[in-house]
Amino acid sequence: MSIEELSKICMNLISNAGEGRNYVFEALELALREDYAGAKSKILEAEKYLSEAHRIQFEELMSPQARGEEIPFNLLLLHAMDLLMISISEKDLVDTIIRAKSTDV
């Protein structure tokens, strides 16, 4: 895989992970205002983007490498993987908070 191909894949992954993360923080803001239905809706939107980012990671990076294709390492790849991991972790945490708080009322 060329650096140019890798860069395109990474930017697509970053775009989806970042958009998903934005929805996660919108969900958190709604939950803080006790709009749990709105917060849950934002989490569902976040999941769409994070699922696409995860698909990109698996199908376009991990699977080719598992088949023996060399994936060049660079900081953009590191950033893409880090952003996806952080975004999924934050989504899980915010979703847990929403579920806990929405059952309190």
From TrEMBL:
<keyword id="KW-0813">Transport</keyword>
<feature type="binding site">
    <location>
        <position position="82"/>
    </location>
    <ligand>
        <name>Mg(2+)</name>
    </ligand>
</feature>
<keyword id="KW-0762">Sugar transport</keyword>
<feature type="active site" description="Tele-phosphohistidine intermediate">
    <location>
        <position position="79"/>
    </location>
</feature>
<feature type="modified residue" description="Phosphohistidine; by HPr">
    <location>
        <position position="79"/>
    </location>
</feature>
<keyword id="KW-0460">Magnesium</keyword>
<keyword id="KW-0808">Transferase</keyword>
<keyword id="KW-0598">Phosphotransferase system</keyword>
<dbReference type="GO" id="GO:0009401">
    <property type="term" value="P:phosphoenolpyruvate-dependent sugar phosphotransferase system"/>
</dbReference>
<dbReference type="InterPro" id="IPR036542">
    <property type="entry name" value="PTS_IIA_lac/cel_sf"/>
</dbReference>
<dbReference type="Pfam" id="PF02255">
    <property type="entry name" value="PTS_IIA"/>
</dbReference>
<dbReference type="GO" id="GO:0016740">
    <property type="term" value="F:transferase activity"/>
</dbReference>
<keyword id="KW-0479">Metal-binding</keyword>
<dbReference type="InterPro" id="IPR003188">
    <property type="entry name" value="PTS_IIA_lac/cel"/>
</dbReference>
<protein>
    <recommendedName>
        <fullName>PTS lactose/cellobiose transporter subunit IIA</fullName>
    </recommendedName>
</protein>
<dbReference type="GO" id="GO:0046872">
    <property type="term" value="F:metal ion binding"/>
</dbReference>
